[in-house]
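Box 3.1 — From sequence to structure: Solute carrier family 23 member 1 isoform X1
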Amino acid sequence: MSSAITSCEHLDPVQRGDDVLNCHDDGQGRKKAGQARSSSSGQPIYSILDVPPWYLCILMGIQHFLTALGGLVAVPLILAKDLCLQHDPLTQSYLISTIFFVSGICTLLQVFLGVRLPILQGGTFAFVAPSLAMLSLPAWKCPEWTLNASLVNTSSPEFTEEWQKRIRELQGAIMVASCVQIVVGFSGLIGFLMRFIGPLTIAPTISLVALPLFDSAGNNAGIHWGIAAMTIFLIVLFSQYLKNIAVPMPVYGGEKKCHTSKFYLFQVFPVLLALCLSWLLCFVLTVTNTLPSAPTAYGHLARTDTKGNVLSQAPWFRFPYPGQWGLPTISLAGVFGIIAGVIASMVESVGDYYACARLVGAPPPPRHAVNRGIGIEGLGCLLAGAWGSGNGTTSYSENVGALGITRVGSRMVMVAAGCLLLLMGLFGKIGAAFATIPTPVIGGMFLVMFGVITAVGISNLQYVDMNSSRNLFIFGFSIYCGLAIPSWVNKNPEKLQTGILQLDQVIQVLLTTGMFVGGFLGFLLDNTIPGSLEERGLLVWNQIQEESEETTMALEVYGLPCGIGTKCCTSSCTQYLPFWPKPEAGTGEQGPSLLACLFQEPSGERRKGAAETKL
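Predicted structure (token representation):
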């Protein structure tokens, strides 16, 4: 999430005149880490096919993990109340560990078999709104006794069944809906659909992912507005006011051995720093008994000892596995609601692919790579549902923004990040630590994060002629209805009764999901009200997709590992598969395999005969 803040840089590489802690080319094709270089160049320091030193891969992998940390932790914490888990932080820690583990698997799948760009996969907010809509149905509302901490016995079979049956329902809906994404991706339908889905559909859809969550964020922050306000202040201070301040950092290596280099600490880790400082303040206020100890007093949940037993109860090592909460169940209402989230997630991911390719020095992704990426994301959602994370996975726009800052676009860095996520998911104490974050600190983080997500959705309107009364009407009407209709349906569910229970549930879930209502109206009006392609913003989008040509460079970047499709498995039947790489037309050259691209001699130079990347 921290790069959700930095993604306000419009995904452009940060250019500075100072020396920064970074890596450079020594002029002989070898990359050296830990030495200062001028960051005035807009080209990536390590392009997608380069292999940085192993220690730099690990460090940059940790940074990507920390960048995505806010979003990864936020999803289980948002769902906790509607899963009847607000008073069971131990189970919340299990959900956090599970989403870490599944995100690691999905990241590795995407890097090696999907679109093959360095994009981290993680929990998606697009699934949160339909999940909350489904859990708000009368059949799934939490009993009153689960809302009272004094009445909850987290180890009792009755309580365990209450939350497990809800998450099993979520699992089934996510698994079935993810099959739709798999079909859309691997069949090539996503390319056809993108002809009709423009910025006026995407802007209200993405904006309404976060706008309806203001109530949840406000309630968490309202536990202690002072702590929440300080968290917000620190995030804004670090990410906006101090982002251009370079902090001297000790460095060992290079010609100078021990020396200092400047590092933009506040720009890279604004959320993490704010989170730690607010957490520390809560700890000090708890130790000094400044915060009230009475459970009913205002500000009690800001204490750090209210969830202190979680760390002692959590196991050091815990292996998440499919079906850990039981056999998933399926309802029609849940499936249709999550499908709305799947559509929003797919549209956002396609935009991420093109932005990421531009930042890492790669050509625009060809159609087969986009199709494969969406298909693998669907497979990732299927795995996330099977593992019981309570959510799906998608490409993280936040981490794409981080690529523009670090200018390290190597695929191997993202492999390191995926492996790190896997390890974090296996250590139970890690998830338990994040589950003990004081509630108002979480609320402050949510307020900033949801605001940025809303702004990211609105930023899609930069491609549209907003001087057009047509476009102003479509966007304004879609946003307003996306807020008004769900609010009315939530207050008057009995007025939508058809007499068929399953149909009633489907209608209620869809109409209480703001991003579905707003996105559907935007799609319908944008494709029926007359307007030119330029006015609708589709002209720019079509030009970007037309640039995705099958070149030797594209085959090298987006081809499958080990030369699959170019050196082996080149049957004539495969050319009809929408997700299969195709050799460059008119040449006999074949793209090199993954091994030839990635492996280097110990000296750091590429092996003779290996294709060089021209930037």
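Summary of the box: The chain is about 55% helix and 5% strand.
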